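re the bet — no i am not wrong, look at it urself. input seq straight from the record:
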Amino acid sequence: MNRNGGIIAALSVKKLSKRFGANQVLTDIAFEVADGEFCILLGPSGCGKSTILRLIAGLEQPSTGEIAIDGRRIDGLPAHQRDIAFVFQNYALYPHMTVFDNLAFSLRLRGRTANEIDLTVTEAARLLEIGELLHRRPGALSGGQRQRVALGRAIVRQPKLFLFDEPLSNLDAALRATMRVELARLHRRLKATIVYVTHDQTEALTLGEKIIVLDRGTIQQIDPALEIYQRPANTMVARFVGTPQMNFIDGIVDDNGTIFRSKDARLDLAGLLRENLARLAGQTLTLGVRPEDLRVTSVDRAPINGIVEFIDDLGSERFFHVKCGGVDLVVRAGRDTGAASGERIGLNVDGERLHLFLDGKRFEP
């Protein structure tokens, strides 16, 4: 049990698949979530991440596979016997009840005494800093306050596992940022096991201790946040994680494995990489480079050059959108980088931060 009295659990998912009629939604999903871990299911809309959550919760039944908590299979149990709290995208609060009664509802169903209910609700309200709202009804609350109440309803149950299905998506950008911090603090306090679904990579990278990237019903990569960003397993992950997304250039490796040629760039691989790519001679290779790893330099000294078409000025930083022949590149530049729209600039690449992809998969020289 954790220090707040809740039960910590480990989750295991093995060979999980789900089919709706002829539509295969999930295929051979397998992962582990450790006791007290904050795990993120990340991916584009329709990738199957919410379906995984519903299967864990017992709201859907798997076509094949196993789900276990603390080594005990739960995939055959009805939802109410799984000891799981589910926080939905919509807050699902009872509008006619006060905040106190919303929080106390599940405890009353379980037959808790009035004193137990009062102590549990008061502690949850303290954790979420909503004590002054207990007498109000949901209609009198802001979006952020309603979200805290929804979290509180899950906390008072002291479940083995928390499931979150895009809980911040209905909030504005500023409030989402605030609630991300609050969720991180809450996790540290509760030491709870959490599986959290989002399509927002900022939420994933800032909240997740482990990130599972999904696409089209299959797992693309499972790793810590920094590893996902710095060493994406394939072009799908590289394209999806990162804002702006990674730049890609397709080209051919020459016969000696030392030069990368495309119609828009010529890179000296021998000067950029420690390993010779002779074994890839004649093959098509995709080079990936993140916007922050491209450096603006003079045109005559640059392996890549192009025309600045547009500049995103965000105050603290600027992004150059550069047209390099048939390739559009985005460059994160400092405030002092001197360039203007319509100007030709050169771009250099940091070889240590260059990503290589062969047939869409990460290639290690």
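see?? The radius of gyration is 25 Å. told u. also DSSP finds nine helices and 21 strands in the chain. so pay up
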